[in-house]
TrEMBL record:
The chain crosses the membrane at residues 12-32, 44-64. Its main location: membrane. It comes from Gracilibacillus marinus. Residues 24-66 form the Cardiolipin synthase N-terminal domain. This is PLD nuclease N-terminal domain-containing protein. It comes from the Bacteria. It is a multi-pass membrane protein. It is found in: Cell membrane. It holds the Pfam family PLDc_N. Keywords: Cell membrane, Membrane, Transmembrane, Transmembrane helix.
Length: 69
């Protein structure tokens, strides 16, 4: 148990920035989704993709989901 905790604290400086970036990207994508009037596909589906698919979901939304006018 103590060895597992030591390994976890060793990896924390690597994992923490990735988790922070993922969280910020998800929040920005959700805010954009709420403010956008029209998307390519239903908004409820994009919300699920953004939240469930982690880093790739928000990126897919920004590339594919937002309708370019």
């Amino acid at each position: 148990m103590a060895l597992e905790i030591a390994k976890l604290t060793e990896m924390l400086p690597i994992i923490a920035p990735i988790l922070i970036i993922q969280f910020i990207l998800m929040i920005v994508a959700i805010i954009s989704l709420v403010k956008t009037e029209a998307t390519n596909g239903p908004k409820w589906l994009w919300a699920i993709i953004i939240v469930v698919v982690n880093i790739i979901g928000p990126v897919l939304y920004f590339i594919i989901g937002r309708r370019q006018e």
